[in-house]
Protein 1
Amino acid sequence: MPDLTKTYRCEETINYTFNDPLLLWEALQADGAISAALLLGGLGATPRYSQSGNRRLAIIGDSVLDLLLELKWYPTWTSLRAYNTIRISTLSNAALQAVGNRNRLERYIGRPAGPDGLGRVDQKTMSTTVEAIVGAAYLEGGMDAAKTVVEALGIGAI
């Protein structure tokens, strides 16, 4: 069983408490943080394998963030060009890295052991982690949970 101390602290930052804290723990694992497939769950639990860190959850989070932005943009009747400008300024890797840095998420991110796992979290790792956290919230609590996390993190125009 992984140490969930950082996971519980992260819940305070994102203003959402997971019924399954292992889902958030998975969202906080950078690629390479897990040297081998780790079976998450126990007897009676649905097994979950984390072989690629948080990337699977980030794919879901990316889609959820896109949908939230699209639902806010659509009724404005502004152009697709305006949408793309808003999307880049809100959901680009640089924008999501800024969100993660502002919320000091690096305190919670599991990184590979050794020299590569020390120091600042790079842009791709931070933006992927922000997306993964949103994805984890969505999987557990649906769109309302994802919105709660987005609001707590202060993600731009959403």
Protein 2
Amino acid sequence: MARTRTTPTHWVGVLFLLIAAILLLITSISAPVANDIGILKVTLTNQSAIRHSSVTFGSFGHCVLDVAPPQSDQDYCSSRHIGYQPASIMGQIDGTGFSRTASKSADGLTRAMVLHPIACAIAFIAFLLSLGAGVVGSLLGALVAFIAWILTLIVMAVDFTLFGIIKNHVNSDGTGSHAYYSVGMWTCLAAMILLFFGMLITLFTCFSARKAKKTGTYKSTADTYDGGYNSTTQTRTTRKKRFGIF
């Protein structure tokens, strides 16, 4: 049995899945794992020529960059844990006011950010499965990529909702601090897009490979039947000629 030939289009989808997993990994290791990588970053008002303090919020905590004393370049990071209180943190650091509802909503949504590493792991599994050429590898890779895409879509919606609350309050409270979406947010968004197209491409190559396999089997059967029929006809013609001599 001949092995199903893998098309270049299939490898484009596989590459998309790998890049998506890497991008989700970047979001997963945001502050406090990697100090400078944040999903949301807040530039504080106490900046000077030698001090550029800011707050980075990540998947499992936060970091305050460039804290006192001003001659040093020290960072303070929280411990890593599932769920934290970004509204309270900004209230303590910058005096930003939050309503009770907004504060509770933001605090509760941080627990859902555990989906970042989960989606990353599932996207990587989808990549490994898609490495297998043929119908089975493409189908399994597409199904697992779909799960990773759903999880990424959910956690991205949580990110925009959660940090949208913090961002709007910081930028409108009149303290002068400025909040904006940072690297971790955009890598998550890019991963969601790549997972979607990677899933579609691997699913398309799955059905294409299956169709090509069926077509090849049909042609092989037809050729065998045609070859057998021609051989029988030729044998009968030869026998007829032999009898014709006598």
